[in-house]
Design goal:
- The structure is a single chain.
- By secondary structure, this protein is of the alpha/beta class.
- The chain has two domains: 42-82 and 92-265, Alpha-Beta Complex (2-enoyl-CoA Hydratase, Chain A, domain 1), CATH 3.90.226; 290-454 and 489-519, Alpha-Beta Complex (2-enoyl-CoA Hydratase, Chain A, domain 1), CATH 3.90.226.
- It has helices at residues 24-40, 45-53, 59-66, 125-141, 160-176, 196-200, 218-225, 231-235, 237-244, 254-265, 306-313, 358-373, 391-395, 398-411, 426-431, 455-462, 464-469, 473-487, 492-496, 509-519, and strands at residues 73-75, 97-104, 107-114, 145-149, 182-186, 189-191, 203-207, 212-214, 249-251, 319-322, 330-337, 340-347, 378-384, 416-425, 441-444, 449-451, 502-503.
- The strands form three sheets. Strands 10, 11, 12, 13, 14, 15, 16 and 17 form an eight-stranded mixed β-sheet that branches.
- Helix 4 runs parallel beside helix 5 and helix 16 (455-462) packs across helix 18.
- The protein starts with 23 loop residues before the first helix and ends in an 18-residue tail after the last helix.
Amino acid sequence: MSTDRPDQPPAVDAPVDGKPRTWPLEDNLSTLGAMRDTARDGGGPKRIADQHAKGKLTARERLELLLDEGSFEEFDMLKAGRGGHLGGETEHLGDGVITGHGTIQGREVFLFSQDFTVVGGSLGAAHSEKISKVMDHAVRVGAPVIGLNDSGGARIQEGVDALAAYGQIFNRNVMASGVIPQISCIMGPCAGGAVYSPSMTDFTFMVEDSSYMFVTGPNVVKTIIHQDISFDDLGGAAVHAAKSGVAHFTAPNDVLCLRDVRRLINYLPSNNQQKPPILDLRDPPDRTDPALDYLVPTNPNQPYDMKVLIHSVLDGAEFFEVHAQWARNLIVGFGRLGGETIGLIANQPAALAGVLDSNASTKGARFVRFCDAFNIPLVCLVDVPGFMPGPEQEHGGIIRHGAKLLYAFVEATVPRITVIVRKAYGGAYIVMNSKHIGADLNYAWPTAEIAVMGPRGAAEVIYRREIESAADPAAALLEKESQYRKTFANPFLAAKCGYIDDVIFPRDTRGRLIRSLQFLEGKETVRPRRKHGNIPL
Protein backbone atom coordinates (compact mmCIF):
# COMPACT_ATOMS: atom_id res chain seq x y z
CA MET A 1 0.00 0.00 0.00
CA SER A 2 1.34 3.41 -0.94
CA THR A 3 2.08 5.83 1.89
CA ASP A 4 2.04 8.93 -0.39
CA ARG A 5 -0.22 11.75 0.84
CA PRO A 6 -3.22 12.31 -1.44
CA ASP A 7 -2.42 16.00 -1.87
CA GLN A 8 1.13 15.33 -3.02
CA PRO A 9 2.30 14.18 -6.45
CA PRO A 10 2.93 10.45 -6.72
CA ALA A 11 6.47 9.30 -6.19
CA VAL A 12 8.67 9.28 -9.25
CA ASP A 13 9.32 5.69 -10.22
CA ALA A 14 11.49 4.40 -12.98
CA PRO A 15 12.22 6.89 -15.76
CA VAL A 16 10.26 6.68 -18.98
CA ASP A 17 12.35 6.70 -22.18
CA GLY A 18 15.26 7.91 -20.11
CA LYS A 19 13.36 10.96 -18.76
CA PRO A 20 12.01 11.47 -15.23
CA ARG A 21 8.28 10.94 -14.89
CA THR A 22 6.44 14.25 -14.13
CA TRP A 23 3.13 14.98 -12.45
CA PRO A 24 0.49 15.98 -15.08
CA LEU A 25 -0.79 18.88 -12.91
CA GLU A 26 2.53 20.65 -13.31
CA ASP A 27 2.02 20.66 -17.07
CA ASN A 28 -1.47 22.06 -16.68
CA LEU A 29 -0.32 24.81 -14.36
CA SER A 30 2.40 25.77 -16.81
CA THR A 31 -0.06 25.69 -19.71
CA LEU A 32 -2.57 27.82 -17.81
CA GLY A 33 0.05 30.46 -17.05
CA ALA A 34 1.15 30.58 -20.68
CA MET A 35 -2.42 30.84 -21.98
CA ARG A 36 -3.24 33.64 -19.56
CA ASP A 37 -0.12 35.54 -20.60
CA THR A 38 -1.08 35.11 -24.25
CA ALA A 39 -4.61 36.41 -23.59
CA ARG A 40 -3.29 39.42 -21.66
CA ASP A 41 -0.89 40.30 -24.49
CA GLY A 42 -3.83 40.79 -26.89
CA GLY A 43 -2.59 41.32 -30.41
CA GLY A 44 1.05 41.59 -29.35
CA PRO A 45 3.52 44.43 -28.72
CA LYS A 46 3.42 45.85 -32.23
CA ARG A 47 -0.35 46.21 -32.37
CA ILE A 48 -0.44 47.59 -28.85
CA ALA A 49 2.15 50.17 -29.89
CA ASP A 50 -0.01 51.06 -32.90
CA GLN A 51 -2.99 51.52 -30.57
CA HIS A 52 -1.00 53.88 -28.35
CA ALA A 53 0.29 55.77 -31.39
CA LYS A 54 -3.32 56.62 -32.25
CA GLY A 55 -3.77 58.14 -28.79
CA LYS A 56 -5.90 55.17 -27.66
CA LEU A 57 -5.55 52.96 -24.61
CA THR A 58 -5.75 49.19 -24.87
CA ALA A 59 -8.87 47.31 -23.79
CA ARG A 60 -7.28 46.24 -20.50
CA GLU A 61 -5.86 49.67 -19.74
CA ARG A 62 -9.34 51.12 -20.13
CA LEU A 63 -10.81 48.67 -17.66
CA GLU A 64 -8.07 49.42 -15.13
CA LEU A 65 -8.88 53.14 -15.31
CA LEU A 66 -12.63 52.72 -15.18
CA LEU A 67 -12.87 50.31 -12.25
CA ASP A 68 -11.80 50.50 -8.64
CA GLU A 69 -8.25 49.23 -8.29
CA GLY A 70 -8.02 45.45 -8.11
CA SER A 71 -11.77 44.89 -8.43
CA PHE A 72 -11.95 43.39 -11.94
CA GLU A 73 -12.88 39.72 -12.26
CA GLU A 74 -12.69 38.39 -15.80
CA PHE A 75 -14.98 35.90 -17.54
CA ASP A 76 -14.05 33.69 -20.51
CA MET A 77 -10.43 34.79 -20.69
CA LEU A 78 -9.55 31.59 -22.55
CA LYS A 79 -12.60 31.46 -24.82
CA ALA A 80 -11.62 31.34 -28.48
CA GLY A 81 -13.47 31.68 -31.75
CA ARG A 82 -14.38 28.62 -33.74
CA GLY A 83 -12.68 29.75 -36.92
CA GLY A 84 -14.33 31.26 -39.95
CA HIS A 85 -16.07 29.83 -42.99
CA LEU A 86 -13.52 31.52 -45.26
CA GLY A 87 -10.40 29.91 -43.88
CA GLY A 88 -9.89 31.99 -40.73
CA GLU A 89 -8.63 29.09 -38.64
CA THR A 90 -6.34 31.01 -36.26
CA GLU A 91 -7.57 30.94 -32.68
CA HIS A 92 -7.36 34.08 -30.56
CA LEU A 93 -7.81 33.63 -26.84
CA GLY A 94 -10.50 36.02 -25.65
CA ASP A 95 -11.70 36.45 -29.25
CA GLY A 96 -11.14 40.22 -29.28
CA VAL A 97 -13.19 41.22 -26.24
CA ILE A 98 -12.55 41.31 -22.49
CA THR A 99 -15.59 40.70 -20.29
CA GLY A 100 -16.24 40.53 -16.56
CA HIS A 101 -17.35 42.53 -13.57
CA GLY A 102 -15.87 44.94 -11.03
CA THR A 103 -16.79 47.92 -8.91
CA ILE A 104 -17.05 51.67 -9.40
CA GLN A 105 -16.86 53.47 -6.07
CA GLY A 106 -17.74 50.18 -4.44
CA ARG A 107 -20.82 49.46 -6.57
CA GLU A 108 -20.96 46.39 -8.81
CA VAL A 109 -20.96 46.82 -12.60
CA PHE A 110 -20.60 44.42 -15.53
CA LEU A 111 -18.46 45.30 -18.52
CA PHE A 112 -17.10 44.35 -21.89
CA SER A 113 -14.16 46.02 -23.58
CA GLN A 114 -13.46 45.30 -27.24
CA ASP A 115 -9.80 44.80 -28.11
CA PHE A 116 -8.92 46.39 -31.44
CA THR A 117 -5.45 44.78 -31.35
CA VAL A 118 -7.05 41.32 -31.80
CA VAL A 119 -8.54 40.88 -35.29
CA GLY A 120 -9.60 44.53 -35.19
CA GLY A 121 -11.98 43.87 -32.32
CA SER A 122 -14.33 42.36 -34.90
CA LEU A 123 -17.43 40.59 -33.66
CA GLY A 124 -17.97 36.90 -34.26
CA ALA A 125 -19.99 34.21 -32.52
CA ALA A 126 -17.66 33.65 -29.55
CA HIS A 127 -17.17 37.41 -29.13
CA SER A 128 -20.94 37.88 -29.00
CA GLU A 129 -21.43 34.98 -26.59
CA LYS A 130 -19.04 36.63 -24.14
CA ILE A 131 -20.90 39.96 -24.32
CA SER A 132 -24.26 38.22 -24.01
CA LYS A 133 -23.09 36.40 -20.90
CA VAL A 134 -22.17 39.58 -19.01
CA MET A 135 -25.41 41.25 -20.08
CA ASP A 136 -27.39 38.27 -18.77
CA HIS A 137 -25.48 38.39 -15.49
CA ALA A 138 -26.08 42.14 -15.18
CA VAL A 139 -29.85 41.72 -15.51
CA ARG A 140 -29.96 38.79 -13.08
CA VAL A 141 -27.82 40.58 -10.49
CA GLY A 142 -29.38 44.00 -11.06
CA ALA A 143 -26.23 45.96 -11.91
CA PRO A 144 -25.34 48.44 -14.69
CA VAL A 145 -23.64 47.17 -17.84
CA ILE A 146 -20.95 49.24 -19.57
CA GLY A 147 -19.65 48.56 -23.07
CA LEU A 148 -16.33 49.95 -24.32
CA ASN A 149 -16.66 49.77 -28.11
CA ASP A 150 -13.60 49.68 -30.36
CA SER A 151 -14.34 47.33 -33.22
CA GLY A 152 -13.96 46.97 -36.95
CA GLY A 153 -17.51 45.58 -37.10
CA ALA A 154 -18.80 42.15 -38.04
CA ARG A 155 -16.16 39.48 -38.63
CA ILE A 156 -16.57 38.88 -42.33
CA GLN A 157 -14.87 35.47 -42.17
CA GLU A 158 -17.76 34.13 -40.08
CA GLY A 159 -20.41 35.17 -42.59
CA VAL A 160 -24.02 35.16 -41.42
CA ASP A 161 -22.95 33.85 -38.01
CA ALA A 162 -21.55 37.31 -37.28
CA LEU A 163 -24.88 38.92 -38.17
CA ALA A 164 -26.72 36.48 -35.93
CA ALA A 165 -24.26 37.36 -33.18
CA TYR A 166 -25.26 41.04 -33.37
CA GLY A 167 -28.90 40.07 -33.16
CA GLN A 168 -28.28 38.27 -29.85
CA ILE A 169 -26.82 41.45 -28.37
CA PHE A 170 -29.60 43.69 -29.72
CA ASN A 171 -32.19 41.41 -28.18
CA ARG A 172 -30.53 41.74 -24.79
CA ASN A 173 -30.29 45.53 -25.10
CA VAL A 174 -34.04 45.72 -25.47
CA MET A 175 -34.77 43.26 -22.66
CA ALA A 176 -32.46 45.16 -20.29
CA SER A 177 -33.89 48.58 -21.21
CA GLY A 178 -35.52 50.17 -18.19
CA VAL A 179 -34.30 47.33 -15.97
CA ILE A 180 -30.62 48.23 -15.54
CA PRO A 181 -28.66 51.29 -16.73
CA GLN A 182 -26.82 50.61 -19.99
CA ILE A 183 -23.86 52.78 -20.95
CA SER A 184 -21.81 52.73 -24.15
CA CYS A 185 -18.41 54.29 -24.78
CA ILE A 186 -17.35 54.63 -28.42
CA MET A 187 -13.55 54.66 -28.23
CA GLY A 188 -12.71 53.74 -31.81
CA PRO A 189 -14.60 52.66 -34.93
CA CYS A 190 -18.25 51.61 -34.65
CA ALA A 191 -19.88 51.12 -38.03
CA GLY A 192 -22.64 49.26 -39.81
CA GLY A 193 -24.84 47.04 -37.66
CA ALA A 194 -22.57 47.66 -34.66
CA VAL A 195 -24.08 51.13 -34.16
CA TYR A 196 -27.49 49.85 -33.13
CA SER A 197 -26.46 48.39 -29.80
CA PRO A 198 -25.00 51.69 -28.48
CA SER A 199 -27.98 53.60 -29.85
CA MET A 200 -30.33 51.47 -27.75
CA THR A 201 -28.38 51.97 -24.53
CA ASP A 202 -29.26 54.78 -22.14
CA PHE A 203 -26.15 56.93 -22.57
CA THR A 204 -23.47 57.08 -25.25
CA PHE A 205 -20.01 58.59 -24.79
CA MET A 206 -17.68 59.32 -27.71
CA VAL A 207 -13.96 60.14 -27.70
CA GLU A 208 -13.03 63.06 -29.91
CA ASP A 209 -10.72 62.49 -32.90
CA SER A 210 -10.48 58.71 -32.38
CA SER A 211 -14.07 57.46 -32.55
CA TYR A 212 -16.79 57.49 -35.19
CA MET A 213 -20.20 55.95 -35.81
CA PHE A 214 -22.13 55.51 -39.04
CA VAL A 215 -24.37 52.98 -40.74
CA THR A 216 -22.62 53.36 -44.10
CA GLY A 217 -19.06 54.62 -44.39
CA PRO A 218 -17.45 57.27 -46.59
CA ASN A 219 -16.62 54.77 -49.35
CA VAL A 220 -20.25 53.71 -49.67
CA VAL A 221 -21.38 57.34 -49.59
CA LYS A 222 -18.97 58.16 -52.41
CA THR A 223 -20.14 55.18 -54.47
CA ILE A 224 -23.86 55.74 -54.02
CA ILE A 225 -24.31 59.51 -53.91
CA HIS A 226 -20.89 60.59 -55.30
CA GLN A 227 -19.98 62.73 -52.29
CA ASP A 228 -16.53 62.86 -50.75
CA ILE A 229 -16.68 63.06 -46.97
CA SER A 230 -14.25 62.22 -44.19
CA PHE A 231 -14.82 59.78 -41.33
CA ASP A 232 -15.04 62.64 -38.82
CA ASP A 233 -17.41 64.74 -40.91
CA LEU A 234 -19.67 61.77 -41.51
CA GLY A 235 -19.80 60.26 -38.03
CA GLY A 236 -17.27 61.81 -35.67
CA ALA A 237 -17.90 62.77 -32.06
CA ALA A 238 -18.58 66.43 -32.87
CA VAL A 239 -21.21 65.51 -35.47
CA HIS A 240 -23.10 63.13 -33.18
CA ALA A 241 -22.87 65.43 -30.15
CA ALA A 242 -24.09 68.61 -31.86
CA LYS A 243 -26.05 67.58 -34.96
CA SER A 244 -27.55 64.09 -34.70
CA GLY A 245 -27.91 63.83 -30.92
CA VAL A 246 -26.64 60.23 -31.01
CA ALA A 247 -23.85 61.02 -28.52
CA HIS A 248 -24.83 62.25 -25.05
CA PHE A 249 -21.26 63.08 -24.00
CA THR A 250 -17.88 63.66 -25.63
CA ALA A 251 -14.39 63.71 -24.16
CA PRO A 252 -11.01 64.67 -25.63
CA ASN A 253 -9.36 61.35 -24.72
CA ASP A 254 -9.95 57.90 -23.24
CA VAL A 255 -8.91 58.93 -19.72
CA LEU A 256 -11.40 61.79 -19.41
CA CYS A 257 -14.14 59.71 -21.03
CA LEU A 258 -13.78 56.96 -18.43
CA ARG A 259 -13.66 59.53 -15.63
CA ASP A 260 -17.01 60.91 -16.79
CA VAL A 261 -18.50 57.40 -16.85
CA ARG A 262 -17.53 56.96 -13.20
CA ARG A 263 -19.14 60.32 -12.45
CA LEU A 264 -22.38 59.36 -14.23
CA ILE A 265 -22.64 56.03 -12.39
CA ASN A 266 -22.54 57.96 -9.12
CA TYR A 267 -25.93 59.54 -9.93
CA LEU A 268 -27.73 56.36 -10.99
CA PRO A 269 -29.36 53.46 -9.15
CA SER A 270 -28.07 49.98 -9.95
CA ASN A 271 -31.47 48.87 -11.26
CA ASN A 272 -35.12 49.86 -11.54
CA GLN A 273 -35.99 48.39 -8.13
CA GLN A 274 -33.59 50.69 -6.29
CA LYS A 275 -33.36 54.40 -5.67
CA PRO A 276 -30.25 56.41 -6.60
CA PRO A 277 -27.49 56.62 -3.98
CA ILE A 278 -27.69 59.45 -1.43
CA LEU A 279 -24.61 61.67 -1.24
CA ASP A 280 -24.46 64.38 1.39
CA LEU A 281 -22.37 67.29 0.09
CA ARG A 282 -22.83 69.24 3.34
CA ASP A 283 -24.81 71.95 1.56
CA PRO A 284 -27.47 73.37 3.95
CA PRO A 285 -31.01 72.59 2.70
CA ASP A 286 -32.26 76.01 3.83
CA ARG A 287 -29.51 77.94 2.04
CA THR A 288 -30.90 80.99 0.23
CA ASP A 289 -29.46 83.01 -2.64
CA PRO A 290 -30.62 86.67 -2.68
CA ALA A 291 -29.01 87.16 -6.10
CA LEU A 292 -31.76 85.03 -7.64
CA ASP A 293 -34.27 87.80 -6.87
CA TYR A 294 -32.55 89.80 -9.64
CA LEU A 295 -31.75 87.03 -12.11
CA VAL A 296 -34.66 87.69 -14.49
CA PRO A 297 -34.16 90.92 -16.49
CA THR A 298 -36.85 93.62 -16.34
CA ASN A 299 -37.00 93.56 -20.15
CA PRO A 300 -39.09 90.45 -20.95
CA ASN A 301 -37.23 89.98 -24.24
CA GLN A 302 -33.75 90.04 -22.71
CA PRO A 303 -32.03 86.65 -22.37
CA TYR A 304 -30.22 85.31 -19.32
CA ASP A 305 -28.42 82.07 -18.50
CA MET A 306 -30.67 79.49 -16.82
CA LYS A 307 -27.55 77.65 -15.63
CA VAL A 308 -27.03 80.40 -13.05
CA LEU A 309 -30.26 79.28 -11.38
CA ILE A 310 -29.40 75.59 -11.81
CA HIS A 311 -26.01 75.86 -10.13
CA SER A 312 -27.44 78.05 -7.40
CA VAL A 313 -30.09 75.59 -6.22
CA LEU A 314 -28.23 72.27 -6.61
CA ASP A 315 -26.08 70.75 -3.88
CA GLY A 316 -22.51 71.97 -4.16
CA ALA A 317 -23.38 73.73 -7.44
CA GLU A 318 -22.70 70.37 -9.14
CA PHE A 319 -24.60 69.68 -12.37
CA PHE A 320 -23.88 66.82 -14.76
CA GLU A 321 -25.37 67.96 -18.05
CA VAL A 322 -26.58 65.44 -20.63
CA HIS A 323 -26.63 66.26 -24.36
CA ALA A 324 -24.91 69.58 -23.63
CA GLN A 325 -24.12 70.29 -27.29
CA TRP A 326 -27.41 69.22 -28.90
CA ALA A 327 -30.65 71.23 -28.78
CA ARG A 328 -29.10 73.83 -26.48
CA ASN A 329 -32.45 75.58 -26.02
CA LEU A 330 -33.36 72.82 -23.54
CA ILE A 331 -31.08 71.81 -20.66
CA VAL A 332 -31.25 68.31 -19.16
CA GLY A 333 -28.99 66.62 -16.66
CA PHE A 334 -28.42 65.26 -13.17
CA GLY A 335 -27.84 67.02 -9.89
CA ARG A 336 -28.64 66.63 -6.21
CA LEU A 337 -31.03 68.33 -3.84
CA GLY A 338 -30.61 67.48 -0.18
CA GLY A 339 -28.31 64.62 -1.20
CA GLU A 340 -30.94 63.03 -3.48
CA THR A 341 -30.36 62.60 -7.22
CA ILE A 342 -32.79 64.56 -9.37
CA GLY A 343 -33.28 64.82 -13.11
CA LEU A 344 -33.46 68.45 -14.17
CA ILE A 345 -35.18 69.81 -17.29
CA ALA A 346 -34.96 73.53 -18.01
CA ASN A 347 -35.56 75.92 -20.88
CA GLN A 348 -32.50 77.99 -21.81
CA PRO A 349 -33.44 81.62 -22.65
CA ALA A 350 -29.86 82.20 -23.81
CA ALA A 351 -30.40 79.83 -26.78
CA LEU A 352 -33.25 80.44 -29.24
CA ALA A 353 -35.07 82.26 -26.41
CA GLY A 354 -35.75 78.86 -24.84
CA VAL A 355 -38.39 77.81 -27.39
CA LEU A 356 -39.27 74.16 -27.85
CA ASP A 357 -38.39 72.73 -31.26
CA SER A 358 -38.31 69.17 -32.57
CA ASN A 359 -34.84 68.31 -31.28
CA ALA A 360 -35.42 69.85 -27.85
CA SER A 361 -38.70 67.95 -27.48
CA THR A 362 -37.07 64.62 -28.35
CA LYS A 363 -34.11 65.34 -26.07
CA GLY A 364 -36.39 66.16 -23.15
CA ALA A 365 -38.71 63.19 -23.73
CA ARG A 366 -35.92 60.62 -23.72
CA PHE A 367 -34.40 62.08 -20.56
CA VAL A 368 -37.75 62.18 -18.74
CA ARG A 369 -38.43 58.54 -19.62
CA PHE A 370 -35.02 57.45 -18.37
CA CYS A 371 -35.52 59.21 -15.04
CA ASP A 372 -38.98 57.73 -14.64
CA ALA A 373 -37.70 54.22 -15.39
CA PHE A 374 -35.03 54.50 -12.68
CA ASN A 375 -36.92 56.28 -9.89
CA ILE A 376 -35.23 59.66 -10.30
CA PRO A 377 -37.49 62.63 -9.35
CA LEU A 378 -37.97 65.35 -11.97
CA VAL A 379 -37.53 69.08 -11.46
CA CYS A 380 -38.59 71.39 -14.29
CA LEU A 381 -37.50 75.05 -14.60
CA VAL A 382 -39.70 76.86 -17.10
CA ASP A 383 -39.10 79.90 -19.27
CA VAL A 384 -40.66 79.00 -22.60
CA PRO A 385 -42.23 81.44 -25.10
CA GLY A 386 -43.79 78.59 -27.10
CA PHE A 387 -42.99 76.13 -29.84
CA MET A 388 -40.69 77.12 -32.69
CA PRO A 389 -42.78 78.47 -35.60
CA GLY A 390 -42.11 78.02 -39.30
CA PRO A 391 -42.56 75.58 -42.18
CA GLU A 392 -39.27 73.81 -41.50
CA GLN A 393 -40.42 72.77 -38.03
CA GLU A 394 -43.97 71.95 -39.12
CA HIS A 395 -42.81 69.86 -42.06
CA GLY A 396 -40.22 68.19 -39.83
CA GLY A 397 -42.96 66.94 -37.52
CA ILE A 398 -42.85 69.30 -34.56
CA ILE A 399 -46.37 68.17 -33.66
CA ARG A 400 -45.18 64.59 -33.37
CA HIS A 401 -41.94 65.50 -31.58
CA GLY A 402 -43.67 67.87 -29.17
CA ALA A 403 -46.14 65.11 -28.36
CA LYS A 404 -43.22 62.91 -27.27
CA LEU A 405 -42.33 65.33 -24.48
CA LEU A 406 -45.97 65.69 -23.48
CA TYR A 407 -46.40 61.90 -23.44
CA ALA A 408 -43.22 61.38 -21.41
CA PHE A 409 -44.28 63.79 -18.67
CA VAL A 410 -47.82 62.42 -18.43
CA GLU A 411 -46.48 58.85 -18.31
CA ALA A 412 -43.96 59.58 -15.53
CA THR A 413 -44.91 58.41 -12.04
CA VAL A 414 -41.87 59.73 -10.15
CA PRO A 415 -42.21 62.95 -8.10
CA ARG A 416 -42.57 65.90 -10.52
CA ILE A 417 -42.00 69.53 -9.51
CA THR A 418 -42.13 72.62 -11.72
CA VAL A 419 -40.91 76.17 -11.12
CA ILE A 420 -42.09 78.78 -13.65
CA VAL A 421 -39.35 81.39 -13.75
CA ARG A 422 -40.59 83.73 -16.47
CA LYS A 423 -42.52 82.96 -19.66
CA ALA A 424 -44.93 80.04 -19.90
CA TYR A 425 -47.01 80.58 -22.99
CA GLY A 426 -49.58 78.49 -24.83
CA GLY A 427 -49.18 74.80 -25.47
CA ALA A 428 -45.55 74.92 -24.37
CA TYR A 429 -46.71 75.91 -20.88
CA ILE A 430 -48.89 72.80 -20.72
CA VAL A 431 -46.18 70.49 -22.10
CA MET A 432 -43.49 71.68 -19.67
CA ASN A 433 -44.80 69.63 -16.73
CA SER A 434 -47.80 71.79 -15.89
CA LYS A 435 -50.35 70.99 -13.18
CA HIS A 436 -52.81 70.04 -15.92
CA ILE A 437 -50.73 67.03 -17.02
CA GLY A 438 -50.17 65.67 -13.54
CA ALA A 439 -47.25 67.55 -11.99
CA ASP A 440 -47.26 67.14 -8.22
CA LEU A 441 -46.21 70.67 -7.32
CA ASN A 442 -46.04 73.83 -9.40
CA TYR A 443 -44.35 76.94 -8.10
CA ALA A 444 -43.91 80.30 -9.80
CA TRP A 445 -41.61 83.25 -9.30
CA PRO A 446 -43.21 86.72 -9.15
CA THR A 447 -41.66 87.30 -12.59
CA ALA A 448 -43.69 84.47 -14.14
CA GLU A 449 -45.89 85.22 -17.15
CA ILE A 450 -48.54 82.54 -17.70
CA ALA A 451 -50.77 83.16 -20.70
CA VAL A 452 -52.08 81.79 -23.97
CA MET A 453 -49.51 83.84 -25.86
CA GLY A 454 -47.18 86.81 -25.41
CA PRO A 455 -48.77 90.18 -24.52
CA ARG A 456 -48.00 91.83 -27.86
CA GLY A 457 -49.40 88.98 -29.95
CA ALA A 458 -52.44 88.71 -27.72
CA ALA A 459 -53.12 92.46 -27.94
CA GLU A 460 -52.86 92.38 -31.73
CA VAL A 461 -55.50 89.61 -31.86
CA ILE A 462 -57.91 90.78 -29.18
CA TYR A 463 -57.84 94.51 -29.92
CA ARG A 464 -57.11 94.45 -33.65
CA ARG A 465 -60.03 96.68 -34.66
CA GLU A 466 -59.46 99.22 -31.91
CA ILE A 467 -55.77 99.47 -32.76
CA GLU A 468 -56.42 99.84 -36.50
CA SER A 469 -59.01 102.59 -35.94
CA ALA A 470 -56.89 104.55 -33.43
CA ALA A 471 -55.33 107.86 -34.37
CA ASP A 472 -51.94 106.45 -33.35
CA PRO A 473 -51.99 102.66 -33.86
CA ALA A 474 -48.50 102.19 -32.41
CA ALA A 475 -49.40 103.95 -29.19
CA ALA A 476 -52.69 102.08 -28.99
CA LEU A 477 -50.86 98.75 -29.38
CA LEU A 478 -48.48 99.62 -26.54
CA GLU A 479 -51.41 100.58 -24.31
CA LYS A 480 -53.31 97.37 -25.01
CA GLU A 481 -50.14 95.28 -24.61
CA SER A 482 -49.54 96.83 -21.19
CA GLN A 483 -53.17 96.21 -20.25
CA TYR A 484 -52.95 92.54 -21.23
CA ARG A 485 -49.64 92.11 -19.41
CA LYS A 486 -51.08 93.46 -16.14
CA THR A 487 -54.14 91.25 -16.43
CA PHE A 488 -52.73 87.94 -17.65
CA ALA A 489 -48.92 87.96 -17.83
CA ASN A 490 -48.34 87.25 -14.16
CA PRO A 491 -48.60 84.22 -11.88
CA PHE A 492 -51.39 85.51 -9.65
CA LEU A 493 -54.39 84.64 -11.81
CA ALA A 494 -53.07 81.07 -12.21
CA ALA A 495 -52.48 80.90 -8.45
CA LYS A 496 -56.06 82.00 -7.78
CA CYS A 497 -57.26 79.17 -10.04
CA GLY A 498 -55.12 76.64 -8.16
CA TYR A 499 -52.89 75.92 -11.15
CA ILE A 500 -49.92 77.25 -9.18
CA ASP A 501 -49.41 75.87 -5.67
CA ASP A 502 -47.49 78.91 -4.50
CA VAL A 503 -45.76 82.04 -5.73
CA ILE A 504 -42.35 81.97 -4.07
CA PHE A 505 -39.47 84.34 -3.58
CA PRO A 506 -36.67 83.34 -5.99
CA ARG A 507 -34.11 83.27 -3.19
CA ASP A 508 -36.07 80.47 -1.45
CA THR A 509 -36.22 78.14 -4.47
CA ARG A 510 -33.68 75.60 -3.20
CA GLY A 511 -35.34 75.14 0.18
CA ARG A 512 -38.81 74.77 -1.30
CA LEU A 513 -37.62 72.14 -3.76
CA ILE A 514 -35.86 70.08 -1.10
CA ARG A 515 -38.82 70.14 1.27
CA SER A 516 -41.17 69.21 -1.57
CA LEU A 517 -39.02 66.23 -2.58
CA GLN A 518 -38.96 65.05 1.02
CA PHE A 519 -42.72 64.85 1.37
CA LEU A 520 -43.14 63.36 -2.13
CA GLU A 521 -40.71 60.54 -1.37
CA GLY A 522 -43.48 58.03 -0.69
CA LYS A 523 -45.56 58.93 -3.75
CA GLU A 524 -47.42 56.04 -5.35
CA THR A 525 -49.33 56.15 -8.62
CA VAL A 526 -51.71 53.56 -10.03
CA ARG A 527 -51.86 53.28 -13.81
CA PRO A 528 -54.29 51.37 -16.05
CA ARG A 529 -53.24 47.80 -16.78
CA ARG A 530 -51.69 47.53 -20.24
CA LYS A 531 -48.83 45.95 -22.11
CA HIS A 532 -47.32 49.33 -22.94
CA GLY A 533 -48.41 52.67 -24.33
CA ASN A 534 -47.83 53.82 -27.90
CA ILE A 535 -45.61 56.89 -27.63
CA PRO A 536 -45.72 58.98 -30.86
CA LEU A 537 -42.28 58.04 -32.13
